């Protein structure tokens, strides 16, 4: 047990080496103790990471955005340094409601929501349910629609089984003690990260609490209701799509365009699922080209 405890994330220790740690603080909202980071000034912009990530994934992009915006990033419930489970668990609807409660607690009315992967689904769900009023949503390799139905039918029950099985998070974390396993996992997304990026994900997956949160989120995730509601999305949507993404098929963006003909799409050649970590400068460039969607900065 002592060895496992040493792998858990501990803010009192990790704050000095965590990206943008000097911008961090903790806030209670919706039954969750949120780890969040705020930087910059100007119109409010909110960053929502995807499943298995944390605020660290915005370490390159957030400072660029902070040159013109007041940026908020946070760890989702069950992820990294955020502790607690909102009422309703870690389903898409419950997390969206909890994020809206956090924004209300902070008195933040975001001009733009930027969501990566599952974070894009959270942003869209919030807008559809009128939990937030924004001028634009940016879907960064967004997982807005269900993938191939067969894997979806298999993965959700498997995740529920793993999440409910005692010792599974500890087993996953133990198996990830070898850095090579994390490097292979990152490469499988179509992205290539620097040594710091690999190290940060390695620290996350070695934490049983983080792994447990990821499994619980996967177990409760259901994109079918979002797909049915997506044609009602009134907020302008920008899709940034990495052409080399092996996690969310780039072809999914075309399916979103069928549901929302007015959606704007920018393809980022050669970038994978973690495009914003690979080349935050290119992602920022793509955002600047479409910045008229955000209104006056």
Please outline the helices and strands.
Layout: H1 2-7, H2 11-14, E1 24-29, E2 32-40, E3 44-48, H3 61-65, E4 70-74, H4 92-105, E5 112-116, H5 118-128, E6 136-140, H6 149-164, H7 168-175, H8 179-187, H9 195-205, H10 208-220, H11 224-229, E7 237-242, H12 252-259, E8 264-268, H13 275-278, H14 280-289
Parallel strand pairs: 3-4, 3-5, 5-6, 6-7, 7-8
Antiparallel strand pairs: 1-2, 2-4
Would you kindly provide a written description of the structure presented here, covering whatever features stand out?
Helix 12 (252-259) links the parallel strand 7 (237-242) and strand 8 (264-268). The chain has a single domain (2-146, 222-294), classed as Rossmann fold (3-Layer(aba) Sandwich). With 297 residues, it is an alpha/beta fold. Helix 4 (92-105) packs across helix 5 (118-128) and helix 8 (179-187) packs across helix 9 (195-205). It is built from 14 helices and eight strands. Mean pLDDT is 88; it is low at 1-6 and 149-165.
What helical percentage do the residues reach? Answer: 40-55%
Average residue pLDDT: 88
- Helix and strand content put the structural class at alpha/beta
CATH homologous superfamily caption: Alpha/Beta hydrolase fold, catalytic domain
The rounded distance between the terminal residues' Cα atoms is 51 Å
The CATH class label is Alpha Beta
Low-confidence stretches are 1-6, 149-165
Percent of residues in beta strands?
15-25%
Please tell me the total number of domains: 1
CATH architecture: 3-Layer(aba) Sandwich
Number of DSSP E strands: 8
Strand order of the largest sheet: 1-2-4-3-5-6-7-8
Helical segment count = 14
């Amino acid at each position: 047990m002592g060895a496992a405890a040493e792998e858990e994330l501990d803010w009192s220790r990790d704050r000095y080496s965590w990206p943008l740690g000097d911008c961090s603080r903790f806030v209670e909202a919706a039954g969750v103790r949120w780890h969040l980071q705020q930087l910059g000034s100007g119109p409010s912009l909110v960053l929502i990471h995807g499943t298995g990530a944390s605020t660290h994934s915005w370490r390159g992009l957030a400072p660029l955005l902070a040159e013109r915006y007041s940026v908020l990033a946070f760890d989702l419930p069950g992820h990294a340094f955020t502790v607690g489970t909102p009422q309703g668990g870690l389903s898409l609807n419950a997390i969206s409601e909890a994020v809206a409660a956090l924004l209300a607690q902070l008195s933040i009315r975001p001009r733009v929501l930027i969501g990566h992967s599952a974070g894009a689904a959270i942003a869209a769900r919030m807008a559809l349910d009128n939990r937030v009023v924004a001028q634009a949503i940016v879907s960064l390799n967004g997982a807005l629609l269900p993938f191939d139905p067969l894997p979806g039918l298999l993965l959700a029950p498997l995740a529920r089984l793993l999440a409910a099985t005692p010792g599974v998070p500890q087993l996953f974390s133990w198996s990830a003690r070898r850095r090579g396993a994390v490097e292979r996992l990152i490469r499988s997304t179509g992205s290539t990260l620097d040594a710091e990026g690999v190290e940060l994900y390695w620290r996350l997956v070695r934490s049983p609490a983080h792994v447990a949160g990821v499994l619980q989120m996967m177990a409760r995730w259901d994109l079918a209701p979002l797909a049915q509601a997506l044609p009602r999305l009134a907020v302008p949507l920008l899709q940034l799509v990495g052409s080399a993404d092996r996690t969310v098929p780039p072809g999914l963006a075309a399916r979103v365009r069928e549901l929302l003909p007015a959606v704007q799409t920018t393809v980022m050649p050669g970038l994978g699922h973690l495009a914003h970590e690979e080349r935050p400068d290119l992602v920022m460039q793509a955002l600047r080209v479409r910045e008229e969607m955000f209104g006056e900065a």
